[in-house]
Amino acid sequence: MVDTPSMKATAIKSERNYLDINYDIISWLFPLDHKRIAMLFLVAMSFFVIIGGAMAGLLRAELSNPREQLFYADIYNRIFTMHGITMVYFFVLPALLAVFGGFVLPLAIGARQLAHPHLNLFSLHLYLAGGVLLLLSLTMGGVEGGWNFVTPYATLYASGYTCIALPSMLFVTLSMALLSINLIVTIHTMRARGLTWFKLPLFVWTSYIASVLLVIASPFLLMFAIRVAMQSMFAKGWISFGGELDPLFTQGLFWLFVRAAVYSMIFPAIGITADIIVSFSRKPLHAYKSTVYALFVAAAFMLLSWGTHFPVALQPAAATLFFSVLSFIMLGALALVMINLITTMAGGHISFEAPIIYALTFLGNLIIAWVAWLFLSAPSANMLLQGTQFETAFFHYLMVGGVVTAFMAALHYWWPKMTGRTYQEGWDRIAAGILFTGVQVTYFPQLMVGYLGMRSRVPLYPAEFEMANKLASEGFFVLAIGLLMPMVYLTVGLIFGKSADSNAWGDATGLEWFSDSPPPLKNFAAVPAVAGEVYRLDAKIIDDVVVPALAPATPSAVPDDLTKIEGIGPKISGLLQAAGISTFAQLAQAQTSQLQHILGNAGPRYRMANPETWSKQAALAAAGKWEELKTLQDALHGGKHK
Question: How many CA atoms within 13 Å lie on the side-chain side of 487?
């Protein structure tokens, strides 16, 4: 077969796209590329979110009436327990680290892969194994006692399948702990040349913090699971306060894990929000170093203040005061972070695309959660509010209003990079508004009735709370619409969306935007080197990129007229020829990142040129397919899709 220029260009183009490397099932079941593994995590989590969301809908339907109408109390207990396990362990824990940490973080630090690809694959399979066990326990009847397995609902006398649900939690936690170790090692050892610690974007910092906390937390869950399993299989009436299976000690292990692993997922959410605000405000982050230090302080004191989850009456007054003070210090550090994020937007030229709208709604939800956290940190208020709908609403403001909203912000922000496709504008803004409205209508009434004394985890409540609960139930279905809409238009965008530029948002910061969309298998044409300061939008982020040598033209080859390529004028043609690209065949082999480097070195005026389609146009020109080239160019404006 004759190796024509067009065939050669097509082969090279297929090699640089991680989605086009291989299409067989084995390559997707056992991938080593961090990007494919992250996409598989995304698909699996979407499945579990639908299951957990359906159970939440059943709970809200039951609570729309103050009397039992759909389920007896024991069935209600099983539904909210399985809802909690599904959403916390199979979505909240892996959502930001496994999907965006796994996909974006190596790109954001200039790495070409995670440090340990096989360990990353093992993390995925552990997660899927945990999912199988969860589905098994669900089909057998589920478990009761809440996601924290409160005694006596997790003892030998309980009828739930505790010893099947517990391993599912352990598998997911071990999966995330191994992934966290992988991320930590990658950040330490595989940063691009010149990318020092205080040049890291905030998402990398916060992923690092959450990963460290998750590794610390994992042994506590293991000890908790062992004790709950002993209670479930052997304990009978052997549990006693102060005895060998003291339920308070068991719950203490659980809340240590929750503070370090679950609550800490708010940190990557803050990092995502910060990076989006910087990109769409077109300003560096205000007080970058103090923000990083404040995040570390907040993380440390969040872990140490685990005792605020204990009933005030069941621990010494000195311990209660100690944990309360630590919690207030943590909240002070979080307040400083939020102030810096808000200050960053002041005076910025903000363009209100979907990612920044989601980021702003995240900030609004976080502020409400922060105020509620103040109440729960004060011993006098905590004594009255613990175990009420106020505490439940606070947790959901933090997880749904916080982690889920930040997940949606990140999904819209990095979707063009992950898939190489754009999505329909307009619907994305509507979905963001619906989600924010749904969160407020669902959880704010719960804060109010909880403040007035309505207990959580029970289907029965006083009739005077009926109106607020009906409103919350209707709000949940608004929230569900806000989450389902992106599934629709993002899927449609995969099929009908236009090709995304390397920097889909134009002014987005970060090394990931210097890679093609979708990225090549090894992320970059060569290992990048970084210059300038963090978030300096006017700085040349990539410097001294080692551009792979192009196939040299034969001595008899005549240079082609590169100005026939839409977007290339005489001056840019001269730049390309000076860089050794003088024929259509050579231009067809060039990667977008290489062309951006050539343009960037020529000065600011040339950086505005978009070389996204030049290789594709050149491949058609080299093959003599002028009619196809004309058809393609009719759909372009300035070398990019209209």
Answer: 12
